[in-house]
Amino acid sequence: MDDFVYSEFSSDIPEVRSKNIICVICKMARAQYLFSSSAFKKETLTPPFCLFCLFDLFLFLSLFFIMKFLTLAPLALSATATAMVLVNPEQQPLAPSIVQNPQSKSLIELAPYQTRWVTEEEKWSLKLDGVNFIDVTDEYQSGSYGTLHTTRVVHYPEVMEHSHEILPLSKTLDKSNMRSNLEHFTSFHTRYYKSQTGIESATWLFDQVTAAVQESGASDHGATVKRFDHPWGQFSIIARIPGQTDNTVVLGSHQDSINLFLPSILAAPGADDDGSGTVTILEALRALLRSETIAHGKARNTIEFHWYSAEEGGLLGSQAVYANYKKNQRNVKAMLQQDMTGYVQGTLDAGQKESVGVIIDYVDPGLTSFIKEVITTYCDVPYVETKCGYACSDHASASRYGYPSAFVIESQFENSDKRIHTTEDKIEYLSFDHMLQHAKMSLAFAYELAFAPF
After folding, report:
1. What's the rounded Cα separation, in Å, for the pair 241 and 153?
2. Which of the residues 141, 353, 372, 391 could staple to 134 if both were Cys, CB 3.0 to 4.6 A apart?
3. Can you give the pLDDT at residue 49?
4. Is 22 contained in some domain?
């Protein structure tokens, strides 16, 4: 199986998360580049500096040198090398390792069947460079890597048939609910999937989802909210509203956040990425359950809402969920990902009208066409087509296991939020009116497909 593992990173891998490169500092975040003489040529200083990146860089450099000192000081005072364990390697994710343990590496896929073994530090370095990937370590270790999962063709409705039921429900969508939920969700220091606060934020979110289901009475008719556990601590959340068949429609978002400079230490409020998507589909769930037909399990199809853990680590949580679904022969007919739903200023600054971005690469074309009709019928803003590249969010995990998936983001990809993965991914930069458009889309998507004759 080693013939597909590449030892060097291919320079032709598309850099599809370019929104991470928001200033000179961000682009120069890796230590080995930061101190190279060529980095300070005049032409590299033309982009603007941003204060939040300068602040993050200052914290990083301070902690970097402090930890280096803590590493070297015990060596000078002790005759044994065991003193080196005083430093936790995860506390310096951007520092190059001198000795690398192969067992601590992960296998990532940068494009279909283009793979590379990397350390945790190298993962974050790639993300800082705007490179997406899927962590396929579990697949490789189980011997299932390379297994083809053929996506079956699903026929979706060509016209919207339930506007009389959906429009009254959409009027119950409440921006104040989304704001209060997002304010609390971003109050956790970080939602990094390996952190204690990442577990605490997931627990809080689980309670909110459970309350929404119980208050609607849907739990009396078979609806459930369950934790999907993972070995890293933070769990994924799955709310299931059963229908008359096991044909399943999924709406997803990811609950984790990350600060790429020092994931284990620095704050990562993650308001837009992906707190916005998290509270968007939560509000859509509340509104959907106001339908007695849905809440009482009388819809034709089953509906699920997913909040995935560890998207930032390489789509780890969603991969585990869909691997489990494939193993248990779950019949997923459609999956829509909502990742980053709140930022519109980039579009306005570009002189364009407010819109939502429909991803058209690495998605199911039939489902994407259906979503365009949903937006045209139920949203107050138009859509624009855009691309985000390979493995740009959790919909890629559904596709990987043969389930048709689609992705709608806040804008054209190049106009999306540049503050993500830093301490400045805050509520103050978001538009709840824009998030409301995504909530309308999510609600209509779920309701229309709940009755689709698959």
Report:
1. 24
2. 391
3. 54
4. yes
